[in-house]
Structure formats: C-alpha cells, structure tokens
Predict the structure.
Amino acid sequence: MKKSSIFNKKYSRNTNYGNTDYDCDDCACDCACDCDCACDCDYDCVDYASVPNLTAWLHITNACPLGCHYCYIQKSNDAMPFEVGQKAIQTVFQEALKHGYQVVKLKYAGGEPTLNFGLVEALHQQAHQLADQHGLQLDEVLLTSGVMSAQVQQRLIKMGMRVMVSLDGLGMEHDNNRPLLSGLPTAHMARESLIALKQAEVSVVVSITVTRQPAHSLIALMEFLLEWEIPFSLSFARDNAAFPNREQFMPYNEQLITTMQVIINHFAQKPSRQSLLHALTDRANLGQEHHYTCAVGRNYLVIDHQGNIAMCQQEMQTPITTIYEADPLSKVINNDIGIKNLPVDEKEGCRDCEWKYYCAGGCAALTTKVYGRPDTRSPFCEVYKTIFPEVIRLEAAREIIEWSESANGK
Ligand code: SF4
Ligand code: SF4
C-alpha cells in the first residue's frame, strides 16, 4: 500500500495551514514534496500540513485498560453511544462543507477505542459514505495502545485504516510507563499487535512518549522499528492537570537533552537509512515552515463521548460547545476562553528565534500549564534549541551517504 489513495493531486506547500497535525509523523521519509514522493516507504506519505483539512478527535470511549503514568484523560467506563457517534460524524462533515474544507481527517481515539470497536466500524462506514456523497477526501487513523484481542486485530486489518500504536520501549521501560490498571505489563501485547498489523500491510506508525526512560532503551526501540520499517516519532511527556505520577515520570530539560544527545550520537555513528528528521523533535517540524504548532482553535474539533466539543483533547473537561449546535467550528474559532493557540510571531522569546517557523513555539496547553500564559516560548525551548541543529546535521550526513551510494550505483 504505497500512497494514500486520497492524494492524487498536488497542493501548494505555501498554504499557511501550519503544522496541522503533521502526519508525516506517519512517514519517516524526508520528502518535501506534495506527497508525490519517491521514498519507498510502504505507508501513507501524505503532507497533511499543506492541505486544508478539518480534523476531528472522536472520543470513542472514555475507558481504557491501561494506567499510563502521564495520561491526561480522566477515565470512566463510559463509551460513546451509537447515536452520538453518528451525529458527531454528520456534524464534522457539515462543518467541513460549511467552512470549505476538502479533506476530513478523523482520529478514532479515547480511552482505548478498540474497546468500542463496533462503533469505530459503523462510523468508518458512515464517514466513507458521506465523503463519497460530498466529494470530500477522507483520512482516518485509529490511536491505540495495541492492547486488543486477536479478533479486533483481524477486524482492524480488514478495515485497512491507518493505525497509530503507542510504544515507549520494547519491554520493561514500556511496562513502567504504560502498565495495565492492575499493574501487569503490556509491552508484549503492544508489540505483537504492531507486528501483526504491519505484516498484514496495515499502515502503522508508532508514537513514543519520552518520560525518563534511559536513552539505550529508546535506541533499542527505534532500531527495532527501523528494522521493521515502521515509522515513528518521539514526543516529550507533557505536564498536564491529571499527570498521575509526575515526580517519577516527568522528564526535565537537562535529562531530555542528555537522552536526545545520546540518541543522536548513536545514529551519527550508525546512520539509519530512513530519515529521522521528523522523528526526534517532539512537536516541531524541521521539514516545513509553519506558524502554528497544531490545529487547535482553527480547524480542530475534539468531540467527547457525550457529544461535547472541546478545543484540545487535554481540555475535554471544559468543553465549549456541542455537536448539536448549529456551527460549532465557528464557536471554536471565535472562542475566548480556555486554550489560545497563537501563531509563533505572537510568542515572546520566539519572535526573534531563528527556528521559529520550524518550531512554532511548542504546545500551547503545556506552555499555559507551566507559565500560566500561552504567549511565550515552550518549556522545552532549551531542549529544542540544543537538538535542532544536531538533528539537521544528522540528516545532512544521512543524505550525503544516500547520495554517494546512489552516485556509486549502490
Ligand atoms: S524560542 Fe524556543 S520555543 Fe520559541 S520558536 Fe525558538 S526554539 Fe521554539
Ligand atoms: S494544544 Fe498541545 S496537546 Fe493540544 S492539540 Fe495542540 S499540541 Fe496537542
């Protein structure tokens, strides 16, 4: 399954939609093209950052069997009812049409969405029908812990949807971060699901959350993923109101810098064939200029299991509208309360930064949580400024090797 079937035409890279949700974190290739790239990855390579899309987080269930130490969801056993899901899909398409979007992107999330998998299947079908009916492009991704039954795995394979699996290590380090609520380990289950999906040619990507794992365990995980040709991206665990075990798991800048430098040095000594340009820099995107870190407040709807709509998944406790209102996207765009996702030029300390259009100043939810205001640089700024040049050097060295191999006919 090479490219996503939805992108047959080219879109201008100069459209300023920012780093909407950089789904070439679904792609470890370094293409700067409009997804007509020549990389040989077997996953979807779509530069969504340059495409005007309306993205919706669908909170399929608020339940999850895991008790991750950095989770921001205040879990319960409540699932999204069928009628709520149906209405949510209708609302998302209605808003896409009203606001002139060509692409609808749906994130089936939670909680653990495979716990309410019948709903995912029903909404997937409904979304395809509506996309066909209105001539819109549809992109879907399921966000999962990978802890799922073999039966759900088979149904997921049949659906052919892209899947993002969270994996924080190959064994103990993953288990430390992401145990079951009972405390039992989950790494083996997540790994097995990931490989089963990959072998069935499902487009999979891994999201790695960096807490305080040792660098060597992250390197082992990345080497494993590179060997399987599974794209991945690292995110630094962000402080949030619910972070259950902050003292033990929250990364701090000095430690993140050391960890990232060990990783970068490893790949400098042992270059990977795949580009790591988009894999190592948290929410930044060194491959494309952008002005916003994410889509919050512009083209993003976070729909909870009851049909309430929040600005960001970290603000689900404080929704600002619902799927039943006439034009919830306008309410999100014009909202004055809660999270403010400012363009980087409005952030103090970022305005004069040489990296500003590649970094965009970081996650607004985190900056607000830590500094009480969104209009300043990210709490991870020090880490970003240290690693950005090193990641670029790493990429340059990789490209030189690639170029020289191709010049020598290898
Ligand atoms: S100042 Fe820091 S947070 Fe702001 S754009 Fe530059 S690197 Fe990013
Ligand atoms: S504000 Fe932060 S947590 Fe919310 S969507 Fe944007 S980057 Fe993600």
Remarks:
- The mean pLDDT is 88.
- The beta strands are 53-59, 103-109, 137-144, 162-166, 204-210, 232-236, 300-303, 308-310, 321-322.
- The domain at 54-344+382-407 is CATH 3.20.20.70 (TIM Barrel).
- The pocket of iron/sulfur cluster (ligand 1) is lined by residues 344, 349-350, 353, 355-356, 359, 361-362, 377-378, 381, 384-385 (CB under 6 Å).
